[in-house]
Amino acid sequence: MNHALQQLQPYPFEKLRALLASVQPTPAKTAIALSIGEPKHPSPPFVGEALTAHLDQLAVYPSTLGLPVLREAIAHWCERRFGVPEGWLDPVRHVLPVNGTREALFAFTQAVVNRGDDALVISPNPFYQIYEGAALLAGAQAHYLPCLAENGFNPDFAAVSAETWERCQILFLCSPGNPTGALIPLDTLKTLIGLADQYDFVIAADECYSELYFDEQQPPAGLLSACVALGRRDFRRCVVFHSLSKRSNLPGLRSGFVAGDAEILKPFLLYRTYHGCAMPVQTQLASVAAWNDEAHVRANRTLYREKFDAVLAILSPVLDVQRPDGGFYLWAKTPLDDAEFTRRLYAEQHVTVVPGSYLSREVDGFNPGAGRIRLALVAPLAECVEAAQRIRSFVEALST
Q: What is the pTM of this model?
């Protein structure tokens, strides 16, 4: 067996199940889960219709490169969303459909990392655990940058040493962040591109939450936006990952894309050809329908705004918690140990959240997620409000 498998840590939800295994929640209250970030809003009906309309394509082997109509729809969406000038993104060279960002982030790391004792993959901390697992199984070491409140919950990139940058092969970004919801400013993205040029590493920007934001007049910038601002039409060393899971409430469709540097995507396509992960044709055609429509995405954001407004009005008086820049998580500070808070909240109020320390790694004796919990506002509005009221009651009882 691959000895690197022994380095993998349990997934946060495995730790959560172990934490709660012996707890008997109060039977007087129904269960409300704010733990898993699985969208619960209705999927767009027209996507399901497009999927079922092409079930005859079950008899067709899909190509790894994907259908031209899908790659073109993705390229045009990037033009509309991130201001990419027409013609910059070649649908053949700069776009590759993938079966969701989770699969793509992992596979991308295997294809890009050049194994060696000093190979480094840099990740925010807390982070999406795929970054770490992908790095370790690719033969690299994971290096964690703490995301602290004093830096807007973004890494302090200026504090990274030249030696660390020299060893870096991939820099993972997540904006809006999971679990913090923090956005990486455009100027910071431009600075990071300069560092990638100076030290020869790849920027892998996980932007799967990019379409969940609060101000319709100011969509958040992404790595492609920074490339446009720099006039970097070859997108050199820059690759973005997007998905329909959060944007369109389609986590079961397993559909997303990778876009950016053609010189990186070409060997990545070769890797994926051997990997055997082509997206089914009917899924591709359903995805075209989703990428071509924005009305359902705006409606989705409206639902999340309502939930954030309602939940924050209840929790802000008793917890240190703020509206994030984007995404659908709250990153709340707890008045006691985050795992103990989570265990007691489940026992006394039958509400499930995730301890922040389970989403982070301890480095030099410090875990940046400790003393916080992640709340995923994915349940219907009424459930989110009920959960917030229960959490408030629990916190108020703690103080007395």
A: 0.97
Tens of pLDDT, residue by residue over 319-354, are: 999 999 999 999 999 999 999 999 999 999 999 999
Average pLDDT rounded to a whole number, residues 6-25: 95
Prior bond of 335 cis (ω within 30°): no
98 and 204 share one domain: yes
**Mean pLDDT along residues 116-124:** 93
One domain, residues 349 and 373: yes
Question: What range defines the domain where residue 345 resides?
Answer: 3-42+296-399
CATH number of the domain that 138 lies in? 3.40.640.10
Angle between helices 101-112 and 130-137 (to 10 degrees): 30
Given a cut of 90, whether residue 117 has pLDDT beyond it is no
Picking from 262, 293, 324, the residue at the C-terminal end of a domain is 293
Closest alpha carbon to 242 in 366, 391, 93, 75: 75
- The model's pLDDT over 165-181, given as tens digits with 9 standing for 90+, comes to 999 999 999 999 999 99
* Whether residue 116 has pLDDT greater than 90: no
CA distance linking residue 399 with residue 328, whole number of Å = 28
Sheet architecture: strand order including 120-125 = 95-98, 256-260, 238-243, 202-206, 168-174, 120-125, 141-146
Asked whether the beta carbons of 32 and 387 are under 8 A apart, the reply is yes
Residues 159 and 151 sit within 8 Å (Cβ to Cβ): no
Residue that terminates a domain, selected from 261, 276, 293: 293
